Amino acid sequence: MATTAANIASIKALYTIWAETKGNCPEDLAGIFADNVHLASMDDSQLGLTFAKTASTRADAVRYFSGILDEWEMVHHTPGEVFGDGDRIAMFGSCGWRNKQTGKTAECRIANFWRFKDGKAVEFIDVFDSARAVAAATP
Questions:
Q1: By C-alpha distance, which of 107, 43, 99 is closest to 73?
Q2: Which has the closest alpha carbon to 30: 126, 110, 127, 124?
Q3: How far, in Å, CA of 32 to CA of 121, rounded?
Q4: What secondary structure letter does DSSP report for 72?
Q5: pLDDT in tens, 48-106
């Protein structure tokens, strides 16, 4: 079983890659996920949030992250505090994404909740201000 420190180190490394590449690295994220993973986000029926589909496999999780780039361009992804207890890790930070259709930017706080098993993420919950994202996606 991986320790809290090891899980936090994995998350911090992932967020560093995500931010440095402006999200253009979905395949590099695959290694953190278990074969079967529960990934959930906002309602995918909202304008500009079609990427936000629930995922249940590693391949689905990679599609989630690559799907963001179909509609959005990362301005920044700034992880803040990362903390946890054993297999449960939380990150609170901020991000900015520019909608490719409208050119509008959504700046918002984010929270990500992770659960690990044997050093791999088996659950990822992505929480962000969907109202700001929808507003930025609305012409």
A1: 99
A2: 124
A3: 6
A4: E
A5: 888 888 999 999 999 999 999 999 999 999 999 999 999 999 999 999 999 999 999 99
CA proximity to 126, closest of 52, 27, 45, 48: 52
Total-model pTM: 0.91
Q: Which helix (H) or strand (E) holds 89?
A: strand 88-99
Tell me the one-letter amino acid at 75. V
pLDDT at residue 1 in the model: 58
- Nearest partner of 96 among 23, 27, 12, judged by Cα: 23
Asked if 92 and 80 touch (Cβ cutoff 8 Å), the reply is: yes
Convert the pLDDT of each residue in 22-59 to its tens digit: 999 888 889 999 999 999 987 767 778 888 889 999 99
The alpha carbon of 26 is separated from its chain's Cα centroid by a whole number of angstroms, namely: 10
